[in-house]
TrEMBL record:
<feature type="transmembrane region" description="Helical">
    <location>
        <begin position="161"/>
        <end position="184"/>
    </location>
</feature>
<dbReference type="Pfam" id="PF01490">
    <property type="entry name" value="Aa_trans"/>
</dbReference>
<keyword id="KW-0812">Transmembrane</keyword>
<dbReference type="InterPro" id="IPR013057">
    <property type="entry name" value="AA_transpt_TM"/>
</dbReference>
<feature type="transmembrane region" description="Helical">
    <location>
        <begin position="412"/>
        <end position="439"/>
    </location>
</feature>
<feature type="transmembrane region" description="Helical">
    <location>
        <begin position="387"/>
        <end position="406"/>
    </location>
</feature>
<feature type="transmembrane region" description="Helical">
    <location>
        <begin position="221"/>
        <end position="242"/>
    </location>
</feature>
<dbReference type="GO" id="GO:0015179">
    <property type="term" value="F:L-amino acid transmembrane transporter activity"/>
</dbReference>
<keyword id="KW-1133">Transmembrane helix</keyword>
<feature type="transmembrane region" description="Helical">
    <location>
        <begin position="262"/>
        <end position="284"/>
    </location>
</feature>
<feature type="transmembrane region" description="Helical">
    <location>
        <begin position="190"/>
        <end position="209"/>
    </location>
</feature>
<feature type="transmembrane region" description="Helical">
    <location>
        <begin position="84"/>
        <end position="107"/>
    </location>
</feature>
<dbReference type="GO" id="GO:0016020">
    <property type="term" value="C:membrane"/>
</dbReference>
<feature type="transmembrane region" description="Helical">
    <location>
        <begin position="460"/>
        <end position="480"/>
    </location>
</feature>
<protein>
    <recommendedName>
        <fullName>Amino acid transporter transmembrane domain-containing protein</fullName>
    </recommendedName>
</protein>
<feature type="transmembrane region" description="Helical">
    <location>
        <begin position="346"/>
        <end position="366"/>
    </location>
</feature>
<feature type="transmembrane region" description="Helical">
    <location>
        <begin position="305"/>
        <end position="326"/>
    </location>
</feature>
Amino acid sequence: MFYSKSKSDGEKPKDKFIEDIKVKEKKVRSDSNSSSNSDVEVGAAADAVKNAVRAVDSFDDDSRHDAVFGDVGDDGPNYRNVGWIATIAIMLKTMIGLGVLSIPAAFDTLGLIPGVLVLFSLAGMTTWTGYVVGKFKMNHRDCYGIDDAGMIVFGRVGKEILAVAYVLFQTFCAGSGMLSISIAFNALSVHGACTAVFVAVAAVIAFCVASVRTLHKLSPLAWIGLVSIITALLTLTVAVGVQERPAAAPRTPEPFKSDFKLFGNPSFVEAISAVSAIFFAYTGTPSFFPIAAEMKNPKHYTRSLLFTQGGVTVIYTVVGVVVYVFTGSFVSSPALGSAGPLMKKVCYGLALPGIIMSTTICTHFPSKYIFVRVLRGSKHLASNSPTHWITWLGCVGGCATFAYIISSSIPIFSTLVSLIGAFLGPILCLIPIGAMWFYDHYRWADRKVNNPNTIKFKLLAGWNIAIIIIGFFILIAGTYGSVVNIMDSFKNGETTGVWSCADNSGSV
């Protein structure tokens, strides 16, 4: 089971805790040679210590008790029931969804070569930060979300800042997903109803599916969504390669020739907004804490992470490069609209389950976070009591409603994506993760393993400092660029307006 540390134990990792117990065992036996304790008393004390060691050694495979969810009984949901393969599906669905749809347009802004370099750089950084999340979770078993890590590293103020940022980030992502669902509905129906109605329908769907309480039960739907979005992306990739011209390209007698650029010439605002959009595609890191918390065996977390990061980087690169090379400056955002009227419907039809699952997961995570925080430590958290159900459905309903308001008030997909990536992404995915690495490696530095004077340690320290600095840069510059773009879009009439009935898919 997950070992819940007491305040007297401090925040020590498992191996350090076991080492301390074994030292105490040796002390008990040595004291017996210089005291009047009976052999029976000494033996009983030593056996108790050995049993404690066995208990901590076996905690990875026992899901009946958990440092976060408490005792898991048969009369309630079993939160600790996600295998490492199902974890890959959930991680992939967390990553592959809304972000990939904006990558070809970001390449158009930056140019193909700078765009690919930015993508690879962000892939490397977020793979490292995801790895640090897994190690930190193993060292601090009672961490459920990134706010718990904030409490350990930064104290109460850090916890609350990261808690607010996490809930806002996930609900903004859910809002972006609802906006994408409305675009899909408009594309499939050729604007068959008011867009505001489609957004409301998307919110209801997200509420219903996100109400499933455990990631284990959501994992089959995650697989469906993953296959759905990958199939749509592959269909799009083939379609843009064989079509006569992109949907947005003007109809002329001459054959279409792509105007893709190896190097772009964007303004600073355009460039940093494009970087923020690509970064958004890799901002699954804050979700990895609660995913790891529901794994059967968290030791397999890194395995799942590497499969996920490798898979998404290959998909992002192939889709981004192929779609942009064949469409050039006429690429659409979301990218599914780039393949002409008929294939646009086909791609959105294939992608719709995947977009719904992305929206569902982004609604589920903040709801689960609030739910766990409200009921943590009570018997209602892992039971089927009325209090449990009222609290859970209230959390899901509140987050779905908030996401609906966001999607209706910022109805521009590309700018909403870049705003999320710029403002909330660094606060959750880069800056605190670098600080978490320093906390673990200096607070608990075993000088034989983590000697600060070694070259390896200095390089890792420099790498984490760079991640923190880059995080602050994206936060400040990216947010500025995104806000400027949103203001320009409203000023130039490029948006449909808030709670608008106008088509947002380019179908009419």
